Amino acid sequence: MSIGILYESIEWSNDHLCEYLNEVGIKTELINLEEDSIDLDYILKHKLIVNRIFPSSPFRGYKKSYKIAESLLRIIDDSNIPMINPYKSYRYDISKLSSYYALKNKGLSVPEVYGFFEKNINLNDYDEKYPFILKPDCGGRSKYTFIINNKIELESAIEKIPEVPFIIQKYIHPDKEFTTRVEIIDNKIITILKRYMGKGNLSSYHSGSKYKDYKNCPEKIIKSSKQALQCLNIEMGSLDIIETKENEFFIIDVNATSNFSEDNIEMLGFDPIEMMASYISKKYNELT
Predict the structure, then answer these.
(1) What are the tens digits of pLDDT across the range 2-11?
(2) Domain formed by 113-170, architecture
């Protein structure tokens, strides 16, 4: 029996995760969905599958993985092979619109979505909505994400974006000059970070944001973060949250495939991949 980690790009986190699991005596292998042929029967022989296909894959040159992942993960789910995170979580991971409605329907605070479109858009429909966020329905790492302040900026952005579904969502100003990143494994908080604004007034690792421990994060944010991941069936993942000067907060993004780089260990003071491996090992041992 073994664990298969599905991936599409060479990432330190994926290699490190595989190493940890092998070191504790669980046969684990990386399965690259970008390879020319996929041995589906072989994949289905694994006792446990770990999904590491990032929603940003089509914008980073890994279009094949993105195209086949949904069908493959559905087959794994239909075959009753346990998967972290499960197929339903992946569906939310690749559609910000579906996760928005799932959270909204549970009464969780999310910024209003104004529109959903692919390339063709009536620019006059949003005159009273500025500023707003324009971002891919399936995406990540701030790729093709814009803060739009007026019609000219919207026209310019429309010329740059690919022909994939996009959403237009209410812009929540980060009054505290940071967004909050909450990382959760097995319904337990592993870290809460303040992530300050970076390039383009966006908050993300890939826009050059600086991070700092958020030691006095309000309990209502912690509670809502756990509720959100439970709602989306995410066992290991993260959320991005914005707080306002009125002490309101909004969940602006949820990630079912958290990624880390090696330099995160020094910043965090612990190895998050080791914690992920520990949880995966626990779930695997429950199956044997």
Answers:
(1) 999 999 988 9
(2) 2-Layer Sandwich (3.30)
